[in-house]
Amino acid sequence: MKSASAGTIALLAAAAAGGSGAPFFMADLYTITLASGQILYWTNFDQNLTIGAITWTCATDKGTQPVLKRGEYKNVKGTEVGTLDLTLNCGQTAAISGTRLTVFAANGGFDGAQVLIQRCFMSTAGNTGNGAVTIFQGLVAAVDPGTTQVVLHLKNQNEYMALSWPRNLWMPQCNHAFGDAGCGFNLAEITDSQTVQSGATTQAVGGSLVRANGYYVGGVMTFTSGVCNGVSVPIGGYANGVFTPSIALPSAPAPGDTFTAYPGCARSWAACQAYGNTNQFNGFPFVPPPETAS
Asked: What's the pTM value of the predicted model, to 2 decimals?
């Protein structure tokens, strides 16, 4: 059962009375908390709306905020997980922190984000005195980035019960991601600055600094200028100075464009030793293989 303010209840009751009832306005309020901690406050209304100390901003023509459209959502009983699709129509200008929204989504910017969707009922446009009613709360389960739009596939709060538990899995590999807060390794120490050479395509990029074959495999390359500026992709192959991205680039970079690259980590005890970071290792290298433990 959803709760609503007395003002909202009175407004809807008045609208339902006498058949056609009194006119009112509706607006959806979207609060998206990214894994980075950044919070986005967006509305599908045609003007900004403020409740308390929070302002939800609307999309403007050729602005950086997308136009939002959500699909249908049905409440379900018990522990069944409810789903909802949220489409972000980005055009060519929508961006987050200077990165095109489609690129931001493709690079995992919305992964694990929490989403709160509320609806505001107003007697006049912009009158938010009745507050808002929560209609959905959950997290981003999957992301489908396109050329001019991004679709966020949302699951409600019941999805939290499916998250991994306990926090640390008993496995030989380290539970940390390379370079995260738990790992603590400073990736800047092994990050190289590169310049794109001639002949680059969306699937093969030659760099100016040549390392041993396989050196960068498993790492990440991030473009710092040119048509791919801001794009980060995992490195699937590296031989004779040529990088092979695991995911094709959105456009072929031009000679002279710049990017950074660092190698990966196998997250094994031996790899951690090679990086001199074993004091942060969070795996269990002496767990016996299944055939031994059975």
From this structure: 0.54
DSSP string, 30-76: EEEE-TTS-EEEEESSSS-EEETTEEEBPP-TT-SSPEEEE------
For 212, residues 6+ apart whose C-beta sits below 8 A from its C-beta are none
**Same domain, residue pair 64 and 120:** yes
What's 189's DSSP letter? G
Q: How far is CA 2 from CA 9, 42, 136, 154, 272, in A?
A: 11, 22, 10, 19, 50
Please give the Cα distance from 95 to 103 (Å, whole number): 9
Domain that holds residue 256: 187-264
- Does 82 fall in a domain? yes
What digits encode the pLDDT tens for the residues 32-85? 999 889 999 999 999 999 999 999 999 998 889 999 999 887 666 555 557 889
Looking at residue 256, what DSSP letter applies? T
Q: Which helix (H) or strand (E) holds 101?
A: helix 101-106
Q: Which run of H or of E encompasses 89?
A: strand 83-89
Dihedral angle of Cα 173, 177, 179, 185, to the nearest 10 degrees: -30
